[in-house]
């Protein structure tokens, strides 16, 4: 968390969000301003930055973490409706933006589980030993996602 403090106050325009995500995800996933604006208008990821740019609020670093998480899940084939339900769970569980980095998301492609990092081992054990034994699972740690973003943001001036 210590290394991320300097990025916690950075804010980004929608075009900067697109540029950062393209650098991380490559061209396999289509990322453009219309898609970013759609996710914002639908209330999926609401900009929480304090700065206004061209009559729109900028995105915070934590919003960028959520966008990166969304596009990584899309790349893995997880449906958008699953992401929406996970965002609702996150909004209920997370008290502050710092709390976001202590959470982990696990999915088997059909169901999404959001847990604190402390209880993820129990969750993985339940998934792997249950009726879906042998099922692939993806685990997304928000701190790891933030660290990946930090390296790209540090390389370029935003």
Q: What descriptors fit this protein?
A:
3-stranded antiparallel sheet; 49% helix; two-stranded antiparallel sheet; alpha+beta; globular; 158 residues
Per-chain topology:
Layout: E1 11-12, H1 14-25, H2 33-41, E2 52-53, E3 56-57, E4 59-60, H3 61-75, H4 80-93, H5 97-100, E5 103-107, E6 112-116, H6 120-129, E7 138-141, H7 142-155
Antiparallel strand pairs: 1-4, 2-3, 5-6, 5-7
Helix pairs in contact: 1-3, 3-7
Overview of the structural elements:
- By secondary structure, the chain is α+β, with helices and mostly antiparallel strands.
- It has one domain.
- Helix content is 49%, strand content 14%.
- It contains 7 helices and 7 strands; from the N terminus they run βααβββαααββαβα.
- It has helices spanning 14-25, 33-41, 61-75, 80-93, 97-100, 120-129, 142-155; strands at residues 11-12, 52-53, 56-57, 59-60, 103-107, 112-116, 138-141.
- A 3-stranded antiparallel β-sheet has the order 6-5-7, with helices on both faces.
- A hairpin with a 2-residue loop joins strand 2 (52-53) and strand 3.
- Helix 1 (14-25) packs across helix 3 (61-75) and helix 3 (61-75) crosses helix 7.
- It is globular.
- The model has no long low-confidence stretch (mean pLDDT 78).
